[in-house]
Amino acid sequence: MKALILVGGYGTRLRPLTLSVPKPLVEFxxxxxxxxQVEALVKAGVNHVVLAVSxxxxxxxxEMRAQEERLGIKISLSHExxxxxxxxxxxxxxxxxxxxxxxxxxxxxxxxxxxxxxxMLKFHKHHGKEGTIVVTKVEEPSKYGVxxxxxDTGRIHRFVEKPQVFVSNKINAGMYIFTPSxxxxxxxxxxxxxxxxxxxxxxxxxxxxMELQGFWMDIGQPKDFLTGMCMYLQSVRQQAPEKLRTGxxxxxxxxxDPTAVIGQxxxxxxxxxxxxxxxxxxxxxxxxCTVLKGARVRxxxxxxxxxxxxxxxxxxxxxxxxxTVLGEDVIVNDELYLNGANVLPHKSITDSVPEPRIIx
Amino acid sequence: xLKAVILIGGPQKxxxxxxxxxxxxxxxxxxxxxxxxxxxxxxxxxxxxxxxILLLGFYQPNEELNxxxxxxxxxxxxxxxxxxxxxxxGTAGGIYHFRDQILSGGPSAFFLMNADVCSAFPLxxxxxxxxxxxxxxxGVLLGTTANRTQSLNYGCIVENQQTNEVLHFVEKPSTFxxxxxxxxxxxxxxxxxxxxxxxxxxNQQDRLQEEQPQGRQRAEVIHLxxxxxxxxxxxxxxxxxxxxHFWSQIKSAGSAIYASRLYLDQYKHTHPERLxxxxxxxxxIIGNVYIHxxxxxxxxxxxxxxxxxxxxxxxxxxxxxxxxxxLHGATLQDHSCVLNSIVGWDSTVGKWARVEGTPSxxxxxxxxxxxxxxxxxxxxxxxxxxxxxxxxxxxxSEVIIRNSIVLxxxxxxxxxxxxxxxxxxxxxxxxxxxxASRTRSSSGLxxxxxxxx
Lengths: 360, 453
Prior knowledge:
The complex is a heterodimer of chains A (360) and B (453). By secondary structure, chain A is α/β, with parallel strands linked by helices. Chain A has 7 helices and 31 strands.
């Protein structure tokens, strides 16, 4: 089976991290975002993944070659030279996707959840129509586009974009499965799948909704990246608790790469991910954070709700909070206070940032 | 034979030093590890021929003052007495009222100084300067140089460059007069009382001639600066001795930290035994640090520069303290960080907590810049300044207290920034002495209008 992952462009909402590394390769809970999706797809029987990108990256290409080998599947890159919207990339990859009649998956690359690909396939084959959209329940539906569908069959009636009054609390979770005949509906030009393709399919009774069980998050921006991390770690606790680190000094769900080094008298967690080669010196208190590969947090510092970029160094007695994000190779001097600072790569921070702002 | 008189004020004075002055009279607040006044007294005790030191003020007799008097006399072997004014009599009214006591024993001259200044006290130089020019002069004012803008906040002295005579004196002018400012440290001969007496007589006359007595101003209230110096200037009675050594006012808590730095630096020459140094099994010391011998400090702590640690203070593992004063009995728990702050008596700072203020130091690039007497509010908000924890304040673990003033006997339960914390959350049980807590207010009030502390 095949899958198309809409990777898109520069990943601007996840800057400064995406200034150093293409978004699909940013590690989420110690594994590149893309790999979470690809591995789940492979498990469901996918043997060919197409990445729809609008910005070519050598790094991405190289990494994908390596994964092809490792997973024993084929990975192609479909490069849109001009923006094609959310449906256009499907037309671009038409050849790759339609060489047989098997349904194919389409995913938004920012989505993290307990991927239900096997269930999707079953559900899709059961109703036998052209398209299935996975929906998820949210607390504040009016921030999104909601899906209105029949509860028992899943048949979609319509979509409503950012409704003013309550219509439904289910939104598009960014995961689809389509029968190849869908490709005939899409032309090779900038097209919005939500606005142009889906409404027609819904009208014709060809679009069905499958409700997602469990957690869901769009991790395309730092705040949501951290929230998604908390949800994912909780799901790891339920399904594979041996992967989490426990013991004195560890609280709640903590994921630690085996090569990370942790000093004395640290207090770690809940909801912390420490990447490969990360060093936490003595007396560090860290919660609700992701520390990326090779970074160092020096002694007695206090971090909450932060992302520490690759190879960065946080000084002694530093306090960082409120979704502070350090890009790659950032140095934070001793004794500073960072509140919601967004720091671009290779920067040295020598003064406190008491109110949220971007440091270039 | 010489004497010294130190004006120490009273509870209504020094309100900018609240909430610290709620616990201890401001002149006894520790600066560089010892009470503010002790620096004056030590300097006076070093002058040969110094017979006795008189403290003049209108504090009611209290325990701290008595204890201080006893200790300082024992340690320095000099006579120190407290003379209580029956009311606030102004900077000249007090000494005039007690002139007989001051002149008893026939001193040839006496020093007069304000308690709330921090100085190198060049008293011997002032004496020599005075001795060199005999005759009708009755006083030497210690002066120092300020920058043009800041000079307006002080008494300004116009000097005859050849004779060092005071030609003109204006207290806090509204336009620039002179960049030589009055330090509040003087050397007078007994003749000064003649001049003060003249002012007193004149005030009495004016009052007797008034139809209705105006307000609470008594005839005995005489201000040295406004009433006496302005008169004597230009009459070849006063001279100014200019010093380049350090000098600063101590009006607000922020200036106490600045003054500490100046005195700690001076300790290198005058009291090297008061400066701590990194030793085996002890904390790491950076720059000038004072540590009371009874303080208990973990060897992994890092202290300094410009830190004073008081009696019985406990400092845990991995604590960082910089540019701060930690008062008696306080506890700083593991991994906490205290910067540009004053931690009050018996307060506790929790683990990994951060207590941080904003320094209000004078511009280091301007050698004549003085510390600003900051206003509490600016542009509708609290001016960023030193963070002060009053006595018996408890800061929980892992929070940040930044640019805030916490009044005494408070248990905080979250982070605060740029606030004056008078009372906290709804769930707090009524404190019997705190009538304000009955008006169920929300936590962490932000004050936008003037508040009277």
